[in-house]
Design goal:
This protein is α+β, with helices and mostly antiparallel strands. The protein folds into 3 domains: 32 residues; 59 residues, no CATH class; 43 residues, no CATH class. The chain is 20% helix and 28% strand. The chain contains 1 helix and 7 strands; from the N terminus they run αβββββββ. The chain has a 3-stranded antiparallel beta sheet, with no helix packed on it. The longest helix has 29 residues. The termini are far apart.
Length: 148
């Protein structure tokens, strides 16, 4: 093989590899929230098309706010931005309440959701810890009307 051809191919591979790596790193920085923070307006009281629905995605999501009214099978919630959303509730919908806890409630095997700030050593200083009932996913329970 021609020596110049081999050198050219190696240089081209290095340039393509470097550009791909740079592109991947730029994409990751723009789409991945830092540990302990939330991107895309999540938990900020605004969301999909300014509806007050946060975390909205295909097939799911959640909303936060103050209950304006309840009726048979639904709850109307007012988001911080003033918009309202009707939430349909069935007899099988789990309705959870949070209560104050202590360090003694934090036992091995307990499901929790922790929010806080990252430390330089990689640890997290907790600002809040939510204890989740066994068998639930670890999506945060955000009390209606809480400061976001």
């Amino acid at each position: 093989m021609n020596k110049n051809f081999v050198i050219g191919a190696v240089v081209a591979l290095i340039i393509v590899g470097g550009a791909s790596f740079y592109g991947g790193m730029s994409y990751a920085k723009s789409s991945t929230p830092a540990r302990g923070s939330f991107a895309g307006g999540q938990f900020s009281g605004t969301g999909a098309a300014g509806t007050g629905r946060v975390g909205a995605r295909a097939g799911g999501g959640f909303t936060t706010g103050k209950i304006l009214s309840t009726s048979n099978g639904s709850v109307t919630i007012q988001a911080q931005n003033g918009s309202t959303e009707i939430v349909l509730v069935s007899a099988s919908t789990p309705i959870l309440k949070s209560a104050a806890g202590s360090m003694s409630d934090l036992a091995a095997g307990t499901n929790v959701v922790v929010t806080g700030s990252s430390n330089s050593d990689g640890s997290l200083t907790a600002e809040s810890i939510q204890i989740r009932p066994a068998g639930t996913n670890n999506a945060p329970m955000i009390p209606a009307g809480s400061a976001q």
